[in-house]
Amino acid sequence: MIMIESALKIFCGNSNPALAKDICKYLDVPLGEADVISFPDGESFVRINENIRGTDVFIIQSTCNPANQNLMELFIMIDAARRASANRITAVIPFYGYARQDRKDQPRVPITSKLVANLLVSAGTDRVLTVDLHAQQIQGFFDIPVDHLYASPVLFQYLKNIDTTNLTLFSPDVGGMKMASAYAGMLDVPLGFIAKRRTSAETVEAVSLVGEVAGRDILLVDDMTETAGTLCAAAKLLKENGAKSVMAAVSHGVLNEMGYQRLSTGVIDQLITTNTTPVEVRPNVPITVLSVAELLGEGIRRIHNNASVTGLFNIKGF
């Protein structure tokens, strides 16, 4: 019996083409040719411009702003690949949108994370590769394999070079304590947390804190920020309690205009994030953007070669 190895093909939508190109550069493969356009009425249209019959297809698309548009592009690209007889289709979703709607915490609300998972499977996805889901249980919403990578190795490579002699690591809310504890252990620094109260979708009030603050440099860690409300409220409370400086490290910088405005006030001395979504670097807004192209590229390579991805959770030099 002759075994024929499936060729690797990578395509992307319009959400983050720069990241897709960097991933292809790391893998030394060309980015696949496809038209992904919108008609005047807003309908998305996809045409794959090369033969993908029997190939191993990876479609890179973050579901960031505009989330619904990018999500529909992803569904349609998956459907186009399936109908073009791709052997296997992997949805590479560096930022998985709708992840915050992961439970029924109010009457008559949906669990949209589960709905998106169902739609991805129905469209023809064979497996998913993603980074730092907002809630771990989202992996269980899928009936297909999910490779869940973490941005921590990328962030730690940067953070290990900062001076930690006067550093305290804080979680901006109680829910992020597990992530904060992991970072505190890696950096060997004290740990604290802040209790918050959300007053609206865009407004957060920090109410109390636990941990060493006075005269300390503070590092806040979280999985994502959009309006920067949680981070800025936490930073304001920390500085009111004597913090010397406040930095923040987040996996996904899904910043909107309000987020940029809040960061421009200087209450946070530096925001460190990754390019899982496009991040605009503006004057007077202290943002450092790290690349996850190597992390995702290595994940794609190992999935394509049917190799283990466990090694990607290890942090170099630690």
Question: Order of strands across the biggest sheet?
Answer: 10-9-8-11-12-13-14
Indicate the proportion of strand residues.
25-35%
Helix content: 25-40%
Largest sheet: 7 strands, mixed
Query: How many DSSP H or I helices?
Result: 8
Low-confidence regions: none
Explain the overall architecture.
The structure is a single chain. With 318 residues, the protein is α/β, with parallel strands linked by helices. Helices cover 28% and strands 26% of the residues. It has eight helices and 14 strands. The mean pLDDT is 91.
Layout: helices, strands, pairs:
Elements: E1 8-12, H1 17-27, E2 34-38, E3 44-48, E4 56-60, H2 67-83, E5 88-93, H3 112-123, E6 127-131, E7 146-149, H4 152-159, E8 167-171, H5 177-187, E9 191-198, E10 204-210, E11 217-225, H6 229-240, E12 245-253, H7 257-263, E13 270-274, E14 287-290, H8 293-304
Parallel strand pairs: 1-4, 4-5, 5-6, 6-7, 8-9, 8-11, 11-12, 12-13, 13-14
Antiparallel strand pairs: 2-3, 9-10
Helix pairs in contact: 1-8
Name some characteristics of this structure.
318 residues, alpha/beta, Rossmann fold, five-stranded parallel sheet, 26% strand
